[in-house]
TrEMBL record:
It comes from the Bacteria. One of its GO terms (biological process) is methylation. InterPro entries: SAM-dependent_MTases_sf. SUPFAM superfamilies: S-adenosyl-L-methionine-dependent methyltransferases. This is Methylase. It comes from Lactobacillus johnsonii. Keywords: Methyltransferase, Transferase. The keyword Methyltransferase applies. GO terms for molecular function: methyltransferase activity.
Length: 213
């Protein structure tokens, strides 16, 4: 495992894994620090086709007893994405965890570009030239304080466009929401991470109710 506990903790400059979620979230909200952290991870691996934190989170962060958290195997994530397909560029997933299924969908979009290649399906490999992050929107929801920072990381390092909402997908009560924005046509660019203001307009737009503190 490339990103074991010691490796991740060293990159994040923490001495214990329990500090990872808060540390990672703070890094994601700071542009300079965010991009520096991304580069440190990419120095170890540039394979973005899967969730690097799968085993790290499962071993150190998952709340299996209190919230019944567990990971979807990569093979199941691949099967689910093949069954559902994607031709619109819009993706929605509740209880997204750290983003394993989301990453599988994003990777398939990169490889096949179903939006950009609608009229060029007979030209193999054309998606390499046509994939434009601005044509895709990924909306994901997750309740766990521990999982959300990893979910944001996984979206932003891959240059996605979308929104990560920390909420109960059934009651629609939301604690936070973050816009993940890559407003370029560069599939290799990092995304910005922008905290969503807690206004009535965004409640309506995201179909949520801000949790009262």
């Amino acid at each position: 495992m490339q990103f074991d506990v010691n490796t991740v903790n060293k990159i994040l400059n923490i001495d214990d894994a329990y500090k990872a979620p808060d540390t990672l979230l703070a890094l994601m909200l700071n542009k300079t620090q965010r991009e520096n952290i991304f580069k440190k991870f990419l120095n170890i691996s540039t394979d973005l086709s899967f969730d690097w934190f799968h085993e790290y989170f499962e071993d150190e962060q998952a709340e299996r007893k209190s919230k019944k958290q567990d990971f979807t195997p990569d093979s199941i994530a691949t099967l689910l994405n093949k069954l559902t397909g994607n031709t619109t560029g819009y993706y929605y997933e509740p209880t997204a965890g750290t983003g394993g299924i989301l990453i599988t969908r994003w990777w398939q979009d990169c490889l096949n570009d179903p939006v950009g290649t609608k009229n060029n399906t007979n030209i193999p490999g054309i998606s390499f030239f046509t994939y434009d992050p601005r044509k895709y929107w990924y909306q994901v929801e997750e309740l766990s304080d521990r999982a959300v920072p990893f979910l944001i990381f996984n979206m932003a390092i891959r240059g996605m466009n979308g929104v990560a909402i920390q909420c109960d997908s059934l009651s629609r009560e939301a604690k936070e929401a973050y816009f993940i924005r890559n407003d370029t046509d560069n599939a290799l660019a990092f995304s910005e991470v922008i905290e969503v203001p807690k206004t009535k307009d965004f409640e309506k737009e995201l179909n949520i109710n801000w949790k009262e503190v």
